[in-house]
Automatic annotation (TrEMBL):
Coiled-coil stretches noted in the UniProt entry, renumbered to this chain: 32-59
InterPro entries assigned to the protein according to its UniProt record, in alphabetical order: Peroxin-3 (IPR006966)
The entry's keywords: Coiled coil
Name of the protein in its database record: Peroxin-3
Annotated GO MF terms: protein-macromolecule adaptor activity
Any one GO biological process: protein import into peroxisome membrane
Key word S-adenosyl-L-methionine present: no
Keyword hit for Transmembrane helix: no
The organism's place on the tree of life at top rank: Eukaryota
Pfam families, per database record: Peroxin-3
One Gene Ontology CC term in the entry: peroxisomal membrane
Lineage, opening ranks: Eukaryota, Viridiplantae, Streptophyta, Embryophyta, Tracheophyta
Organism: Arabidopsis thaliana x Arabidopsis arenosa
Length: 364
């Protein structure tokens, strides 16, 4: 016992230090072990999240691609057929051409000149209006379907708590969905008269100095078409052309939809407000300009290839170009599967990127 007391007195400090070190070491070990387990659990969670993210990305890519196929195979063909019929009905140049043909040798020079001038205005109006309408309607429908597809995907994933069984849930009211998609007919059913009037006014302004004997080359024709488009797009308030594609905006509804989560606001109105916001964006305006320019260049190029050698390339009198302009109607409004102009627009890198970002970055 004396030995123990002596040992304690002699080595007490060392014993306490050693015990403290052992205790601290054990505590540190427990803390390290706990931290290691937490890190392992966190890594497993992150790996699981990464796996889920990859699944979601794969599903979203497949869903996005299926949406583009729906546009090309179903929605767009219907709209293009409807548009082609309406333009042919509203802008008919046959009566002018018939009067010119039947009145040969009978019309006075002023009457003949007036008919030729009318044919000039109507021909350019119909060509540019067709070009503009086909371009804008194709882009608008693609915006619509991507917005709707994104909403369907996000809403369904939220309801399921995962994104694995999208086809089993349908949250968007069918009436709202159908009403939203059918609103693409607004251009043809409601806006066509005012669109024709305004486009004709733009054509008259650009063509007022051009005579029937003026030589028209490929470059002159391209510039003339783009001038008519530019005058039309720049006339009126900014983005006034959006009102040809969709119903005028309800300002009160827009504020309610964007600033409130009130479920009384229908999904249809929410979709329409989001669509308008996309259409008036700088990004959409940019792809509109690019698409119209590419369409014009491709159309004039095709017109040049269909003329005899030395035609538009070297120049032709405007009077001889007008019949050729009339022939463009069928190729401009051809069904999407045979419409190379729509295919050119669809394959533009800027257009592809825009719709990829639109689908991926839709507000959630």
């Amino acid at each position: 016992m004396d030995f123990v007391r002596g040992f304690w007195r002699k080595h007490r400090r060392k014993v306490l230090v050693t015990a403290g070190c052992l205790g601290s070491g054990y505590l540190l070990y427990k803390l390290y072990n706990s931290h290691t387990r937490r890190l392992a659990d966190l890594e497993r969670e992150l790996a699981h999240e990464r796996e889920n993210d990859e699944i979601i990305k794969t599903q979203m890519k497949a869903h996005f691609e299926s949406i583009q196929m729906i546009v090309d195979s179903t929605t767009l063909p219907h709209a293009m057929q409807f548009l082609s019929i309406r333009i042919s009905e509203e802008i008919d140049v046959s009566h002018v051409m018939d009067r010119l043909n039947q009145g040969k040798g009978m019309l006075s020079p002023p009457e003949k000149l007036q008919l030729w001038d009318e044919l000039k205005i109507l021909s350019f109006t119909r060509m540019v209006l067709s070009l503009w309408s086909v371009t804008m309607l194709s882009l608008y429908i693609r915006v619509q379907v991507n917005i709707l597809g994104r909403h369907l995907y996000v809403d369904t994933a939220r309801a399921l708590g995962s994104s694995h069984l999208l086809e089993e849930v349908d949250l968007i009211d069918r009436d709202d969905e159908q009403k939203f998609l059918s609103s693409a007919d607004f251009l043809v059913t409601n806006a066509m008269p005012s669109l024709i009037s305004d486009m004709q006014g733009s054509a008259e302004e650009v063509l007022k100095g051009k005579q029937l004997k003026d030589v028209i080359t490929t470059r002159v024709l391209q510039e003339t078409v783009m001038q008519i488009v530019d005058v039309f797009m720049s006339t009126g308030s900014p983005h006034h052309w959006v009102d040809y594609l969709m119903m005028p905006q309800d300002t009160k509804l827009s504020r309610t939809t964007s600033d409130s989560s009130d479920e009384a606001v229908s999904k249809f109105h929410q979709l329409m407000v989001e669509t308008r916001e996309v259409l008036i964006s700088t990004e959409f305006t940019n792809i509109v300009e690019i698409s119209l320019k590419c369409f014009t260049d491709a159309l004039v190029e095709e017109m040049e290839t269909q003329t005899e050698a030395g035609g538009l390339a070297t120049g032709k009198p405007l009077a001889k170009v007008l019949p050729q302009i009339e022939k463009t109607m069928n190729v401009i409004t051809a069904e999407p599967s045979k419409n190379r102009f729509l295919q050119i627009i669809r394959d533009l890198p800027e257009v592809k990127l825009f719709f990829t970002l639109l689908y991926a970055n839709m507000p959630q």
